[in-house]
Amino acid sequence: MAKAIRINAVGGPEVMEYVDVEVGDPGPGEARVRQAACGLNYIDVYFRTGLYPQALPAGLGMEGAGTVEAVGQGVTHVKPGDRVAYATRPPGAYAELRVMPAAGLVKLPDAIDFETGAAMMLQGLTVQYLFRRTFPLKGGETILFHAAAGGVGLIACQWAKALGVTMIGTVGSDEKAELAKAHGCAHTINYNKENFVERVKEITGGKGVPVVYDSIGKDTFTGSLDCLSPMGMMVSFGSASGPVPDFSLNELASRGSLFITRPSLFAYTAKREDLDAMAADLFDVVVSGKVKIEVNQRYALKDVAKAHIDLESRKTTGSTILIP
């Protein structure tokens, strides 16, 4: 038996139960992983609340790091004893031990410890596809990135600076503004004190930005569109404040032929060769020191309800991990 978090109904943090589960042998295409740490991400809240539906009862958690104990038939890219990390479906990372699809596993370089590996995969791969594939940054651009002091945001601050990109980041407090600046964010906007649309126009001399990366959703969507220059790209990759409201395509035309996309990590990593290339890029910037993964909160797995409460109340900064 192994300890894991399970939900039998959707709802608040109280629906998560710390229980014993049977973990068997991996079947074809699967691996059994003994987890040293697992990551906490806002997508976990979406599954817990039912915003992202799944069959119940179910596990939660999309990323982790640990050691492969066994592999099933057909698995050749990892073997027992390998150090691995992942960010993949189905949910179930909140566990001491799990059997999972091996296709999502990548070997973790020796230079990266398990806690960092568990904290970096979903958030780091997200920044990788946002900056390198969704709207490829070449250097010299000025961009707007919401929630700049969060886990994804702090990685984005550093990666943008490494690419020679001027990042404008929104934050919810002066303390978070200082944190974002310390990680390479060129300009910060405290949305509780300032109008971020006006400040973006001021910073850019009225031009706006070619791309907005927005994981907030409802509260920032329209303002984000207003920050774009003509033919700019709105990248809506999350909805921490609630789903984006319905809108008319004319909203894009009236602002200057804007583009909009709603990407997901799992579409970008669906092909093995893409996952390997993205992970290699991420590992390279971390091992080189250009991007440091800030694990600012650690919770015991049994205290996952407290972790979710802190995440939803925006008390967390950087990355958060659960220790089985």
Automatic annotation (TrEMBL):
GO MF annotations, alphabetized: mRNA 3'-UTR AU-rich region binding; NADPH binding; quinone reductase (NADPH) activity; zinc ion binding
Sorted alphabetically, the keyword list is: NADP, Oxidoreductase
- Report the Gene3D superfamilies cross-referenced here: Medium-chain alcohol dehydrogenases, catalytic domain, NAD(P)-binding Rossmann-like Domain
Top-level taxon of origin: Bacteria
Q: Which GO terms describe its cellular component?
A: cytosol
Report the leader peptide range: none
- Pfam families in alphabetical order: ADH_N, ADH_zinc_N
Enumerate the spans annotated as Enoyl reductase (ER) domain.
Answer: 11-322
Query: Per its UniProt record, what InterPro entries does this chain match?
Result: ADH-like_C (IPR013149), ADH-like_N (IPR013154), ER (IPR020843), GroES-like_sf (IPR011032), NAD(P)-bd_dom_sf (IPR036291), QOR-like (IPR047618), Quin_OxRdtase/zeta-crystal_CS (IPR002364)
Q: Give the matching PROSITE patterns.
A: QOR_ZETA_CRYSTAL
What PANTHER family does this protein map onto?
QUINONE OXIDOREDUCTASE PIG3-RELATED, QUINONE OXIDOREDUCTASE-RELATED
Protein name as annotated: Quinone oxidoreductase
Organism per entry: Noviherbaspirillum galbum
